[in-house]
Amino acid sequence: MDCPRCESPLESYTLAGKRAVTCERCGYLGVSVEHRSEPKEIESWQAALDRFNDT
Ligand SMILES: [Zn+2]
Hints:
There is one protein chain. This protein is α+β, with helices and mostly antiparallel strands. Helix content is 18%, strand content 31%. It has 1 helix and 4 strands. The chain has one helix at 45-54; strands spanning 11-15, 18-22, 29-32, 39-41. A 4-stranded antiparallel sheet has the order 1-2-3-4, with helices on one face. The longest helix is centred in the last third of the chain and has 10 residues, at 45-54. It is globular. Zinc ion is lined by residues 3, 5-6, 8, 23, 25-26, 28.
Protein backbone atom coordinates (compact mmCIF):
# COMPACT_ATOMS: atom_id res chain seq x y z
CA MET A 1 0.00 0.00 0.00
CA ASP A 2 1.25 3.46 -0.87
CA CYS A 3 0.56 6.80 0.76
CA PRO A 4 -2.45 8.58 -0.79
CA ARG A 5 -0.71 11.89 -0.28
CA CYS A 6 2.86 11.39 -1.42
CA GLU A 7 2.78 7.81 -2.77
CA SER A 8 5.69 6.63 -0.71
CA PRO A 9 5.44 3.18 0.93
CA LEU A 10 3.39 3.08 4.12
CA GLU A 11 4.37 1.42 7.33
CA SER A 12 1.65 -0.75 8.84
CA TYR A 13 1.12 -1.86 12.41
CA THR A 14 -1.63 -2.64 14.88
CA LEU A 15 -3.00 0.18 16.99
CA ALA A 16 -5.55 -0.58 19.71
CA GLY A 17 -6.59 -3.74 17.91
CA LYS A 18 -6.99 -2.05 14.55
CA ARG A 19 -4.68 -2.08 11.63
CA ALA A 20 -3.10 1.30 11.09
CA VAL A 21 -0.84 2.68 8.43
CA THR A 22 1.52 5.60 8.60
CA CYS A 23 3.76 7.51 6.23
CA GLU A 24 7.10 8.63 7.57
CA ARG A 25 7.59 11.10 4.75
CA CYS A 26 4.50 13.29 5.08
CA GLY A 27 3.07 12.16 8.40
CA TYR A 28 -0.11 10.61 6.97
CA LEU A 29 -1.88 8.35 9.44
CA GLY A 30 -4.70 6.03 8.49
CA VAL A 31 -6.69 3.39 10.32
CA SER A 32 -8.56 0.63 8.56
CA VAL A 33 -12.18 0.26 9.64
CA GLU A 34 -14.21 -2.92 9.47
CA HIS A 35 -16.64 -2.08 6.68
CA ARG A 36 -14.14 -0.38 4.42
CA SER A 37 -10.87 -1.55 2.97
CA GLU A 38 -9.46 1.93 2.50
CA PRO A 39 -7.77 3.61 5.44
CA LYS A 40 -9.56 6.52 7.01
CA GLU A 41 -7.46 9.47 7.92
CA ILE A 42 -7.76 10.45 11.55
CA GLU A 43 -7.02 13.68 13.31
CA SER A 44 -3.37 13.58 14.18
CA TRP A 45 -0.59 11.59 15.68
CA GLN A 46 -1.39 13.05 19.07
CA ALA A 47 -5.00 11.90 18.88
CA ALA A 48 -3.85 8.44 17.88
CA LEU A 49 -1.41 8.27 20.73
CA ASP A 50 -4.05 9.48 23.18
CA ARG A 51 -6.40 6.77 21.95
CA PHE A 52 -3.66 4.19 22.25
CA ASN A 53 -2.83 5.25 25.78
CA ASP A 54 -6.47 5.01 26.83
CA THR A 55 -6.60 1.30 26.12
ZN1 LIG B 1 3.01 10.28 2.58
